[in-house]
Amino acid sequence: MSFPWAKQYEPKHPVMQWVDNRLPLPRLVYGAIGGGYPVPRNLNYWWNFGVLAGAALAVQIITGVVLAMHYAANGAVAFDSVEHIMRDVNGGWFLRYAHANGASMFFIVVYIHIFRGLYYGSYKPPREMVWLLGVVIFLLMMATAFMGYVLPWGQMSFWGAQVITGFFSAIPLVGENIRIWLLGGYAPDNAALNRFFSLHYLLPFVIAGVIILHIWALHIPGSNNPEGVDVKGEQDTVPFHPYYTAKDGWGMGVFFLIFALLVFFAPNMLGHPDNYIPANPLSTPAHIVPEWYFWPFYAILRSFTADFILPAKLWGVLAMFGSILILFFLPWLDRSPVRSAKYRPAYRIAFWVLVVDVLLLGYVGGSEATPKFLILGQITAAYYFAHFLIIVPIISRIEKTRPLPNSITEAVLAKHDGHGATRDGAAVPAE
Amino acid sequence: MATVDNAVPPGESPEPFEDTVEDPRRRDYLAIGAVAFAGVGAGVIALPLINQMNPSADVLALSSTEVDLTSIQPGQAIKTSFRKQPLFVRNLTQKEIAEADAVPLSVLRDPQTLEERTKPGHKNWLITLGVCTHLGCVPLGAGEGEYRGPYGGYFCPCHGSEYDTAARIRQGPAPKNLFVPEYAFLSDTKVKVG
Predict the structure, then answer these.
(1) Pairing status of strand B85-91 against strand B77-82
(2) Which of A14, A148, B75, B103 is the most exposed place for a label (fewest CB within 10 A)?
(3) Do the interacting molecules here have an ipTM over 0.90?
(4) CB contact at 8 A, A153 and A75
(5) Where is this chain primarily localised (chain B) (predicted)?
(6) Among B171, B154, B155, B168, which Cα is nearest to B116's?
């Protein structure tokens, strides 16, 4: 895979030669994330976030496996076992805060990673499969995060499980039976808690597997880049190691710095105080909110209030799942041959409006459902779908794109000349 | 059985290939049959794996509850538990019954009369699950001093569904009335739910 000028793995040490002849695992690593993987020379810091997502997953798996050594998935003791971790287990508070905030870090990094893909057209041919697998990873992450949030068995855990499994009861005819089957009872209880724990332990490894496919699919065409033009020759690339291992390593330092600030100085900032109250099936908290990373989707769910052919509840659930499933179709909704928004003036505006729209959706989703927020949620939810189904397809047809540079190297050198002029003198870097 | 005269079964002769090979050949039958057998077997094995997620015997064993009504005064409601879900038992006042009866069925999202939602001769006893039909929160209104919403029945704080004095949905996102479980009066002061 990759480019013809990719360096081959040539082990010097006889032991490594012996291993390579029998199990070419070092060769695989060298070609995937070592000197054998040529990468466009112009990647900016937005390209750090894939590696950061991998680091966040590693943090979650390591802290999670350790937490599972002390946690008990039984409705009678689950809440107490989490407090036991917080108070009695040596360093348990650190592990649990790292795991809880690690989920937030994972999502923020992945959201930036997704928006980077949207801005630079990384979902376009020939990288559609990379994008599709990425959406699968995102869905798996959401399922994993939801089930993990149920495990402490606090009020938000319990009522989150009640509300989210309630989505399935919106399905006509069989919905209620599906919900009972998923929960193993009529309301969340031991059976549900146990299966959520089992699946919460399993899914991260499934995510790791899909990430391998994601990277595999990426390495067939190679990485996209901020110019969005194809690599033309060896002068356009540098080896992944040491160039991007160093750049990613620096980003990783910043990532862990922010992570540490959260864990050590504001460990409960992103959580909800109601989850420190043990689950009570007879009393609903006044204001049920999911974790912040689900707020935009929660806002879409709540924005349907009137029946229209189908019940409002079913519309809400369909729209919420649809808002993610629509991403699977993006490579075919946006037919513009130009990848990078740097050369797509109209798409660039639509992109930033979408960013603001999703932030507003998140704000609405985290607020109480007052009429004012309801209207704002309905407008922003409608715009979200309009962006993908109307605005992007139209822009991709009528937009007059800027002239692309002839190569990555030309664009890089033009930038460093200081005038931003390319050979035809037309393209000016957008920033 | 193959004999010397007929060493190769009909349709299996290797030459001339195109002329005599029948499609499907006998070994295709064997292959399809064997794989189909294994496939059916795999499908059957999936059944217990799916079925184990259904409510277990101990969960189902909790499926009936007896409630003593003697201490519930008119206008009062209690919250108890049925199949680990909240159960509202409410003693309606004459005014609340009249309010419920005054509503024309045409304005209801899920049209039902109070008679249909109670037992004959016990029209004042409104017994429903305390599970909002929207997304399963517990509505307010059964506890002492809780807000009962503009229709005087129940009010769900999660997404603002409003129920009337017959626990019928009137406003908000919930699609159905509060569910009336199966129950029977054992005596005038005792009901068995489930």
Answers:
(1) antiparallel
(2) A14
(3) no
(4) yes
(5) membrane
(6) B168
Closest CA to B152 of B111, B105, B95: B95
Give the whole-angstrom CA distance, residue A191 versus residue A75: 9
Q: From CA A112, how far away is CA A46, in angstroms rounded?
A: 8
The residue in chain A having the minimum alpha-carbon distance to the alpha carbon of residue B147 is A286
Instruction: Please check whether residues A128 and A244 belong to one and the same domain.
Output: yes
Query: Is B111 an 8 Å CB contact of chain A?
Result: no
Q: What is the mean pLDDT of residues A256-283?
A: 94
CB-CB neighbors (< 8 A) of B89 in chain A: none
Question: What confidence tens digit (pLDDT) does each residue in A66-87 have?
Answer: 999 999 999 999 999 999 999 9
Residue in B closest to A179 by C-alpha: B54
Structure tokens at B87: 């159960």
CA nearest neighbour of B124 among B90, B151, B99, B147: B90
**Domains defined for chain B, CATH in brackets:** 1-54 (no CATH), 58-193 (2.102.10.10)
Mean pLDDT, chain A, rounded, equals: 92
Between CA A65 and CA B156 the distance in angstroms is: 38
Residues of B in contact with A288 (CB under 8 A): 137, 158
Q: Is A374 on the interface with B (CB under 8 A)?
A: no
Cβ distance B193 to B66 under 8 Å? Answer: yes
Tokens of A29: 């690593």
The single-letter code of the amino acid at A113 is H
d(CA A92, CA A192): 25
The answer to the question of residue A135 being in a domain is yes
Amino acid of residue B87: L
A415 to A230, A238, B121, B179: CA distances (angstroms): 18, 18, 87, 68
**Residue B193 phi, psi dihedral angles, 5° rounding:** -95, 130
Residues 25-84 of chain B with CB under 8 A from chain A are: 53-56, 59, 79, 81, 83-84
Of the pLDDT bands very low, low, confident and very high (cuts 50, 70, 90), residue B12 is low
Tell me the residue range of the domain where A78 lies: 40-288
Of A166, A186, A304, the CB nearest to B135: A166
Phi, psi of B85 (to 5 degrees): -115, 150
pLDDT confidence tier of residue B158, bands split at 50, 70 and 90: confident
